[in-house]
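Interim report to the steering committee. The following record documents the input for Phosphotriesterase (302 residues).
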Amino acid sequence: MSRVRTVLGDIRPEDLGVCDAHDHLFLRSPRLPGQELDDPAAARAELAAFRAAGGAAVVQWTPYGMGRRAADLPGLSRTTGVRLVCATGLHQAAHYAPQTLDSLRGRLAEVFVSELTDGIGSTGALAGLIKVAGGFHALDPHARWTMTAAAEAHHATGAPVAVHLELGTGALDVLDLLCGELGVPGDRVILGHLNRFPDPVVHRQAAASGCWLAFDGPSRAQHATDWRMPEAVRALADAGFGDRLLLGGDTVVAGARSVDGGPGMPYLLRRAWPRLAAELGEELVGRIFREHPGRAFAADWR
C-alpha cells in the first residue's frame, strides 16, 4: 500500500494535507556564501507562519551534504504540527567539495537506499524522496552518475525521484535518461522549476511521460514565475494534464523567508493560490495543494 514517508513515519497520501511540494528549511552551499538556511529557530517560525496560513506539510528537497539538518526535522514537525518529508540524493557538483564527491564514488546508490530505509545517520529520520539535478540544457557526467544511482535506489525502494531542472531546462533529456534508459516509471519522477522555462510544447511533451510537473519558486526576481505561471499551468490543464501538477515555494536563502522579510512559505498560500484559482478555478487548485502531493510523493516502499 502506498505511503508518504515523513520524518515521523509513513502516512496515507490523503493525510498529507495542504502541501508545499518543494521547499527548504535548511540549506548550505558554497555557491550561496553568507545566505545559509541554518537557523532552527527561524525554521520553526517559518513553519508556524506556514501553518497559520493554512499549510499542513512541506517537502524539503535539500539533499545529502547540503546542511539539511535531518536531526532537527522530527522535533520541528512535532512542535509546529507540520508534516515534513526529507530528501536524500545529490545536487550538482558545484555545491560540494571535491573530496565529498570522491568519498561517494562506488557507493552513491547504497547511500541513497540507506537513508530511505535505515535513516539519515543517527537521526532516526528516514528520507522520503531522492533529489538529483540536471544541467543547463544538458546532462553532464555528474548528472548521469547521480541519476543512475537515483534510479538504482528507486528500483530498490520504490522512492520517488525529484529533479532540479537548471533554469527549468533539460526536461526531455532527464526523462530520456531516467524513464527511457534507466526504467524509472514516469509517475515516479517529479520535474522541478518548470516555471523558469515556460515552453508550452516542452511542458506537454514532458507531461506525456506521466511525470509530475512542479511549478515552484513564486515571487523570484528574474524568473518567469508569478506572471507566467498561471498561463503555463492553465495550458497544461487545458491539454489534459491538470492531474499532474504540483506547486512549491523553493525558499533557498535566509532573506527569502517570510520571518526574515521575504515572501517565504506563506506566500504560496496567501498570493499564489488565489491568483491561480482565478485562472484555473478553486477546485483544481485545491486538488493541486491537497491531493496531488500525496500521490506524487507516496511509494509502495520496499
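The chain has one domain: 3-299. The committee is asked to note this result when reviewing the revised timeline.
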